[in-house]
Amino acid sequence: MKKQIKRRISILLAAVMAVGSLAFSAAPVSAAQPEEPSKVASASYGLPDKIEDGAILHCWCWNFETIKANLPRIAEAGFKSIQTSPINAIKIGDNGKMSLKSTNKGNWWYQYQPTDYTIGNYMLGTEDEFKDMCNEAHKYGIKVIVDIVANHCSSDYSAISSHVKNIGGKAFHDRVEITDWSNRYQVTQGKLTGLWDLNTQNAKVQQMIVDYMTTVLADGADGFRFDAAKHIELPDDDASYAGNFWPTILDNDAEFQYGEMLTGADRAADYAKLMKITADAYGSNLRAALQKQKLTSTTAKNYRLAGVDAGQLITWVESHDNYCTDDNPSQNQYSSWYTLNNEQIQQGWAVIAAQGDTTPLFFARPKGSTAGPDGNKWGQNTIGIDGDENYYSDEVVAVNKFRNAMVGENKNLVDVVKQKVTMIERGSKGAVLVSVSDSDNNVNVATNLEDGEYTDQVSGSTFTVSGGKLSGIVPAGQVVVLYTPEEEEEIIPGDVNLDGKIDVEDATMLQRHLAEFTNSDGSPILDLDDPKQFKAADCDCNGKVDLQDVTQIQMIIAEFV
After folding, report:
1. How many helices (H) and strands (E) are present in the chain, helices listed first?
2. Global pTM?
3. How do beta strands 411-417 and 421-426 pair?
C-alpha cells in the first residue's frame, strides 16, 4: 500500500492525532455500532439473512476455539451457519481420551451421553468459550445451531448428575428394550442402545430442557438440532403415552429448529408440522446414485418424504451417523466414508445446495480422512481440531455462493446427458451442471438462461447461451457453476471516506464519528449501515468500530509495522 505522506511528517501528525484521540476517548464506543452488525457482515460475505436460505456447516467434533479460529474461512466459503456437537455436560469415556475412535470405542459418541444440562464439556470447551465463539460468529454474519440431546442421558446411571435424577417425579421411562422398530410405543418409550430414556412427559423434565435451551440462546445460539427426535412422543400419540414435550420445548426464541429423523421414522409428516426434519432416505438414495454414477433429475428432486413440504427439510449427502456406522467387510457393508470420495461429495453437494428449496447441511469429515479400500476413515483421529478441507474446496464454495445469490429464484432440473449430467437452473439467472461421467461431455441444451457468455466459477471456462441453447464442455466428474456474481468493489480497511487512500482525513472522520458529531443536516458522520463504509471503518476487522480502529489508521499513516 502506498503511503500518502512522508515518514517524518506522518510521525508528527500521528503523535498529534494520538493526543486528539485521547480527548475523544470519553465518547461511547457503542455510538459507532450498526444496529445489526451481523447483517452488515452477512452483506460483506454475500450471506443471506435467513439460515434456511443458506447452507449449514456441521463442525462435527470441532471445539469452540477451533470453530472461532476458522470463522473467517467459513464465511468466505459461503456458509450461513455452523452446527456444533452437543455442548452440555457429558460422560467422560475411555479415560477422557480425545481420539474420535480408539481400539474398541468410538469416543465421539460420548458427546451423545448427557450427564447434566449445563453448558460446557471436556471435548468442546467451557461456557465462556462458547459465548466467545457465538459473539465472533455473529461478527461474520454466521448463525450458530446447537445439537440438543433431549431424548436420553448416558447409559451409565452412576455418571448422571443428581440434578437430573432428582428432578422431581419420575425422571426416566421404564427400562424397555426396543426390539420392534415398527412398534410406536417401544420407539418412543424404550431405551435407545442402552441409554437412559428421559421421561419426556414429565413437566419437570420438560422445564429442565427448556431452562437449558434458554441459557444456550442467551449465550448466543440461534437455533437447535434435536437428536433422536422420532424417539420422543407426539401430543396425539396413543393416550397411554402421548405428551406435550414438543409444543413445550419448541416454544422459544430460536430462529431455526429441526429434528433428526433417520430411516424408518414413522409419522415424519406429523413431526414436520412442528419443526423442520431431516430427509435421511433422500441422502441414502443420492449416495447410491453417485456411487453407481447414474444421476438423474428425478433422483435429484425426489426427497422421498410424502406429505412434507421441501421447505421443511434438512438435506445432506452424508451425516455423521452414516459416516461413522461400523463397517462389516465380510458382508460388504460399509459406511459412507468408504463408498464416496471428496469429488463425489462435491457432486452431491452441488445437487442439494443448488436447488434452494431445502436447507442443506455439509458434514465436515475428520481431518486427513480418505475414502476407498486403502482409505483412512478417522484421519488424524483427534477430537477438537477442524475437519477435512473439502468444505472449502473450489466446488463447494462456488455452489454455496451460487445458492446465496439465487435466493427466491425458482428451480428447474434437466437431464442433459442421460444418467451422466444433470442441470439445476435457478430462474434465468444461473445454472449448476453436475457430471458423474468418466468422460467430458460437449453439451448443447435448452435453457432458461438469458443469452450471453457465462464463466464457470470453478474452472474459469466459458459457456455460451444463444437462442435459448446452452453450449460448452462439462469436464468428466466435475461441477460447473454458471452465473454472473455481483462485482465486489475493493474496500481498503482504513479508507473511511472511500476515496481510495488512507490519510489524516480518515482518522479525523472516524474520531468525529466516535464523538457523536453529526453533519450539518443532522445525519451521522458515518453510515455504518452501509457494508462498504462499515468494512472500511472497521480497520482491525473485529466486527465493531472503536478507538482501536483510529489508532490503527494512525499507525498506518506513521508507517509503523
Report:
1. 18, 18
2. 0.84
3. antiparallel
The size of the chain, in residues, is: 561
Cα separation, 162 vs 147, whole angstroms: 23
Q: Which helix (H) or strand (E) holds 441?
A: strand 441-446
- Backbone phi, psi, residue 379, to 5°: 55, -130
Q: Which helix (H) or strand (E) holds 435?
A: strand 430-435
Inter-residue contact 543 to 535 (CB < 8 Å): no
CA distance 432 to 346: 12
287: left (phi over 0), alpha (psi -120 to 50) or beta: alpha
Task: Count CA atoms within 13 Å of residue 33 on its CB side.
Answer: 12
| Residue closest to 400 by CA, chosen among 434, 436, 354 | 354
User: Do residues 154 and 90 touch, judged by C-beta distance below 8 A?
Assistant: yes
> At 520, phi and psi to the nearest 5?
-60, -25
Query: What pLDDT digit, counting tens, does each position of 45-91 carry?
Result: 999 999 999 999 999 999 999 999 999 999 999 999 999 999 999 99
Task: Give, for 71, the enclosing helix (H) or strand (E).
Answer: helix 64-76
Q: How far apart are CA 383 and CA 92, in angstroms?
A: 13
3-class secondary-structure state, position 180: coil
Is the distance from CB of 434 to CB of 399 less than 8 angstroms? no
Q: What are the pLDDT digits (tens) for 92-150?
A: 998 899 999 987 677 999 999 999 999 999 999 999 999 999 999 999 999 999 999 99
Of 273, 409, 358, the closest CA to residue 51 belongs to 358
Q: Where are the beta strands (DSSP E) in 59-155?
A: 81-83, 88-90, 114-119, 143-148
DSSP 3-state of 418? coil
Contact 16, 187 (CB under 8 A): no
Query: What gap in Å lies between CA 185 and CA 25, rounded to an integer?
Result: 65
Is there a contact between 112 and 84 (Cβ–Cβ < 8 Å)?
A: no
Distance separating alpha carbons of residues 217 and 255, to the nearest angstrom: 10
| Residue 483 in grid coordinates | 452465473
Strand runs labelled E in 189-278: 223-226, 256-259, 276-278
- Which helix (DSSP H) or strand (DSSP E) does residue 442 occupy? strand 441-446
CA 426 to chain centre: 22
What does the alpha-carbon distance between residue 378 and residue 335 come to, in Å, rounded to a whole number?
12
* Cα–Cα separations (whole angstroms), residue 178 to 226, 246, 279: 20, 22, 23
- Give the 3-state secondary structure percentages of the chain, helix then strand then coil, rounded to 5: 35, 20, 45
**With 0-12 CB in 10 A as exposed, 13-18 as middle and 19+ as buried, what is 376?**
middle
User: Annotated catalytic sites, by residue?
Assistant: 227, 260
List all residues 6 or more positions away from 484 whose beta carbon is below 8 Å from its beta carbon: 430, 454, 455
Instruction: Please name the residue that has the C-alpha cell 430462529.
Output: 255
Residue pair 410/404 in contact by the 8 Å Cβ criterion? no
DSSP summary character for residue 364 = -
**How many angstroms separate the CA atoms of 423 and 412, rounded?**
8
